[in-house]
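Operator note (shift B, R.M.): manual run for Amidohydrolase requested after the automated queue skipped it. Running by hand, logging everything below so the morning shift can see what happened. Input copied straight from the record, untouched. If output looks odd, do not overwrite the archive copy; leave it for review.
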Amino acid sequence: MTYLFRNCAAVVTSAREPVLRDVDLLTEGPAISAIGKGIEAGPGVEVIDATGWFLYPGLVNTHHHFFQCFVRNRVELDWTRLSVLQWLDTIYPIFARLTEDCFYHASVTAMAELIKHGCTTAFDHQYNFPRHAGTRIVDRQVEAARLLGMRFHAGRGTNTLPRAQGSTIPDEMRETTDEFLADCERLIDAHHEPDPFGMVRVAVAPCQPVNCYRETFTESVRLARDKGVLLHTHVGEGESPVIEARHGMRTVDYLEAMGFAGPDTWYAHCWELRPEEIARMAASGTGMSHCPEPVYLVGAEVTDMPAMEAAGLRISLGVDGAASNDNSNLMHCLHSAYMLQCLVAGTRKDPVPRPGAFLGYATEGGASILGRSDIGRLAPGMAADLFAIDTRRLDYVGTRHDPVSLIPKVGVGLAVDLTLINGRIAWAKGEFPGLDEARLAAQAEAVLAKTLA
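Run finished. Output pasted below as returned.
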């Protein structure tokens, strides 16, 4: 399809560039072909009246656990009532009961919410592989992404260390390193699309060092670099004392010693990192996915993003799973991330990054983390990944002078008016074109009730 967005009130091409006012934007197939005033609509072009609309680059989510949508809003998993160890002992047996159908419908659920709120590219860290659920879990996630039209990065995770050796993972969820590597290779060969505008890519993503053998990480590095794909894991969630007790060094040092670091690698969370660890990550090009909303529940401290920004660390934003964030709304995370930093600004040496920087983390920052030069900003030749907000509402009175800061500083509570992914409308006028949302929701609820009743 070819679309002409006519008379846009504002086009935010990038969080770092001046906002374009009263312009048109033309897409052709998967790419943007022109931005400017007075663009003519040729044959076959569908004209969309964008009067009053702000257009933004599609948001890029760099850390999530889709399957956890099936454990949202459960009283028995309330963090305020349980210690961390009690919580882990309660939730992992629930995770271990999930079926292949659960993983599919949970993925549809999470991606649908992301798309409604302007996210066009999502990385999911799928580390839960109960033996009874089979080996096609990530394949079903790809199926869900294709149904909704989402640009999807699949992180094939694993847990290999037995509970008897210090893992928190039930044996039903544990794999061998060889099983993990074989399925990573299969998924890369079957689904990875490295070319520009590729809709599905695969990353090698062992869950976390405390729940895996050392060889799981060293062999992940070997496989990923042989295949030319990215590496990902959890770091800096309070596990460093455990890693130090086991291996004589903290997590960042442990991973760097194994080569699990560099421009093709990023870590999730990182709220407990020391200044020297931040500096080493920045020097190696290793990136991070900041997930602000879990900080409310599980973080001992607010992630020092000003120090990370000052060090030149590559920063992106993630939603994280519903075990520690009960929604899949990256738009909301922009606001949370900014407000959390403001909360602790008086305790930090470096100033809070400007509000627009948080939009940058969720767009160009996410694109950088995922190794993509074709998404994250709006310009001719870039992917036609964008979302639109109709600002002709009382919600936006007094805010329209600064579209870049609007989302992180004010917050956007409504679903967006349109989401375009790879030149295709994935969400508009409160609907997923060609899909029956009520039917999808009923199917997901039925599987949930059957599995976790």
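Quick read of the result: The chain has two domains: 2-57+375-428, 59-369. Residues 59-369 form a domain with the TIM Barrel fold (CATH 3.20.20.140).
Leaving this for review. - R.M.
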